[in-house]
């Protein structure tokens, strides 16, 4: 659980792939910037030999040393990746779970269905890290008046430093063929202004800047336009786009970007 809007413990789930190396690099940077500690987890198949475990431990220790984290020891568990990752995230009381982009050629790789399950059940927000570990200077949060979207925005804010900008976006959805809905847009703007003010009062002063805008139109088109205009390094989303979500399905917006992330993706439920 996020304490006083600070990330204090980061769990990185690693599968010995280059994508997971990017995730560990991002985690190491965030740990330096926030003062958080890092735990590194690797899940072995129950059928793997002891020699496989020793080899994995050696490779993970090398990764830790390469990221100036030599004081940490990797956690190695046997079993199903999803169950072990969720168990460790809960047991270690991690504030943030970081994984790399899923890939098809790794037997232990975090395929889309694995990411979905983790996202739906993880006690901590999940950061899908896919870009080099430059400091986050531009972040975007999609807000839809849901608790999970607000929570995702608050976590994104906790990862930003002095001079960085977080831009909150709300989409007033309507069929573009119908033309602008001025009355509906005015009401949405009033509600959105109040939401931003409520959230702003809960954000600590980190030196980051908060801006926001409201788009009107079809959601996917508005999101694409905002991403094109803002070029964020980090996109924060709630794990559903509207209303309640089935326990078996992600919201379409989160799922869309999980499959094709335009940048690092932070998702909270």
TrEMBL record:
GO terms for cellular component: cytoplasm. The keyword Cytoplasm applies. Homodimer. This is Universal stress protein. Residues 8-128, 136-269 form the UspA domain. Keywords: Cytoplasm. It holds the Pfam family Usp. It is found in: Cytoplasm. It comes from Stutzerimonas stutzeri (Pseudomonas stutzeri). Coiled coil: none annotated. The keyword Cytoplasm applies. InterPro entries: Rossmann-like_a/b/a_fold (IPR014729), Universal_stress_UspA (IPR006015), UspA (IPR006016). It comes from the Bacteria. Belongs to the universal stress protein A family.
């Amino acid at each position: 659980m996020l304490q006083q809007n600070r990330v204090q413990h980061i769990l990185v789930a690693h599968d010995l792939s280059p994508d997971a190396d990017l995730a560990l690099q991002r985690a190491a940077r965030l740990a330096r910037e926030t003062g958080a500690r890092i735990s590194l987890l690797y899940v072995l198949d129950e059928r793997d030999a002891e020699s496989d475990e020793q080899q994995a431990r050696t490779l993970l220790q090398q990764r830790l040393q390469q990221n100036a984290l030599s004081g940490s020891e990797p956690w190695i568990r046997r079993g199903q990746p999803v169950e072990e990752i969720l168990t460790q995230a809960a047991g270690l009381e991690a504030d943030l779970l970081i994984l790399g982009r899923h890939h098809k050629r790794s037997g232990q790789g975090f395929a889309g269905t694995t990411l979905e399950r983790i996202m739906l059940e993880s006690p901590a927000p999940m950061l899908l890290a896919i870009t080099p570990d430059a400091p986050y200077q531009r972040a975007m949060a999609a807000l839809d008046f849901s608790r999970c979207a607000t929570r995702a925005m608050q976590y994104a804010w906790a990862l930003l430093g002095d001079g960085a900008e977080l831009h909150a976006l709300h989409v007033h959805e309507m069929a573009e063929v119908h033309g602008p809905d001025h009355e509906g847009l005015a009401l949405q703007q009033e509600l959105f202004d109040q939401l931003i003010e409520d959230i702003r009062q809960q954000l600590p002063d980190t030196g980051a800047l908060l801006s926001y805008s409201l788009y009107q139109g079809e959601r996917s088109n508005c999101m694409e336009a905002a991403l094109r205009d803002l070029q964020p390094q980090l996109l924060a989303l709630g794990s559903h786009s509207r209303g309640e979500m089935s326990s078996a399905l992600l919201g379409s917006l989160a799922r869309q970007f999980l499959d094709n992330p335009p940048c690092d993706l932070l998702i909270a439920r």
